[in-house]
Write a structure and sequence with these properties.
Length: 141
């Protein structure tokens, strides 16, 4: 009877094969977290899925071209113990997303928080009075 083979190896690994080979652990090469954008009458909300991240792992800033830039970076520092990794895949991750802001966002009042693995950014909308102040009248000469 012929043995069952996967990737040119026998189905059951021998004592010399690496138990943690790709046949036994499936990878998901996700490079960007899920992002939700929600709008209501008074504001916009951006939600970024960030399990395991803390507020120190994020940087949020406004770029000159009316973009909100969200950067997250997580480094798992190596521990100074005598453990030996047989397989390590989660030592570093980095993500950056730039979102063009709508014209009606009150940029001076943007706030952000991290709770239960979700980064939430509040983008309040300008009131009608604030919009009217920005309307610039051009003098005709």
């Amino acid at each position: 009877m012929m043995p069952i083979r996967r990737n040119n190896q026998e189905w059951l690994p021998s004592i010399f094969n690496d138990f943690f080979d790709n046949d036994w652990m499936f990878k998901t090469n996700t490079t960007a977290p899920a992002v939700n954008v929600i709008e209501n009458e008074t504001d916009y909300k951006i939600e970024v899925a960030a399990p395991g991240m803390t507020k120190e792992d994020f940087n949020i800033h406004l770029a000159d071209d009316n973009q909100l830039v969200i950067t997250m970076e997580k480094k798992n520092e190596s521990k100074n113990d005598k453990s030996k990794y047989l397989r390590r895949e989660f030592s570093y991750s980095k993500f950056q997303q730039a979102l063009v802001l709508p014209e009606d966002v009150e940029k001076d009042h943007i706030s952000a928080s991290v709770n239960d693995g979700v980064l939430t950014i509040d983008l309040p909308k300008k009131t009608q009075e604030e919009k009217a102040k920005e309307c610039k009248t051009i003098e005709i000469k």
